[in-house]
Amino acid sequence: MTEQQPTDAVGTDGQSVSEAEGVAGRARLADWLSRQDPEFPVSADELAAWSVERRAEFLVFVPPGYANQVFLVADHGISSFAPSQQRLDDVLAAARAQR
Fold it and tell me: pLDDT at position 13, please?
């Protein structure tokens, strides 16, 4: 896959993400996750199976299988939320407000 080709991780309302964006986002997310719990470092390669889509200025990462935690990656920061408890639109608005 070249950098110009989108990945196949597109959600219902999201936009596709280029391979380069996905790689960069996974690297940032892996670094953030590793800082959250230094005893369990995470590599970007470990996140390769996670789906990713774009929602406005955010990359939305979803782990494979059933996961009740989704991650938002943006230039201004990273956050997570539980989709069983919060709507994506509400979380996006809250993340924007934290800039």
Answer: 67
